[in-house]
Amino acid sequence: MPTGVAIRDVRQQLFDAAERILLRDGPSALTSRAVTTEAGCAKGVLHRHFDDFDGFLAEFVVDRAHRMDAQAAALREAAGTGTVVDNLTSALTALFTSVAVAVVPLVIFRDELRARLRRTWPAGVPVLTEAAEMVAAYLAAERDLGRLAADAEVDGLAPMLIGTVHLLFADRTGTRPDAEAVRRAVTTVVTGVLREPR
């Protein structure tokens, strides 16, 4: 891109480019040159908006974690409708077919990125932490509606669901699990606390 040409919403353009690379090629392919090439801009553009590449990646990860707010709201609103297993299956499938699975190895892959994230994200892995909170809030709503046992430990069930389903999707190069595989995994985790017809 020639110098002097204005780029609209450059941060979002760079974040979107990083997401495409991460989903297509994995964390090892994510470099500043790859991001700016994918975004169609000069390499200097990234460094004019971010201190360095790890600073860019930290803001990218946090941005993608915050994008889960709408998904969390939709899942909470689903409480009391459909079935608990179907709602969780849909939400977790959507989560793990998004950038979430790719963010986890990116955070693990880069020591400096983890160190920077710790400054603003003190516990857990961004995206997975948000996902566990989203699922726990949904399960709590279903418990309040009587569709889960009154003593269901939603703060323990949520990370179990996230971990179980994450393992199904973790192989980025393999075939994605189908809805029935996700449904079986979800059912296995929550079956002991369900109080609705299966």
Explain how this protein is built.
It is a single chain. With 198 residues, the chain is an all-alpha fold. It has helices at residues 10-25, 32-39, 43-49, 53-66, 68-77, 84-96, 100-109, 111-120, 128-144, 154-169, 179-190. The protein has one domain: Tetracycline Repressor, domain 2. α6 (84-96) packs across α11 (179-190) and α10 packs antiparallel against α11 (179-190). The longest helix has 17 residues, at 128-144. Residues 1-6 have low confidence and may be disordered. GO terms for molecular function: DNA-binding transcription factor activity; transcription cis-regulatory region binding. This is TetR family transcriptional regulator. Keywords: DNA-binding, Membrane, Transcription, Transcription regulation, Transmembrane, Transmembrane helix.
Low-confidence stretches: 1-6
Q: Any idea of the CATH class?
A: Mainly Alpha
Structural class assignment: mainly alpha
Terminal Cα separation, in Å? 56 Å
Q: What's the CATH architecture name?
A: Orthogonal Bundle
Radius of gyration: 19 Å
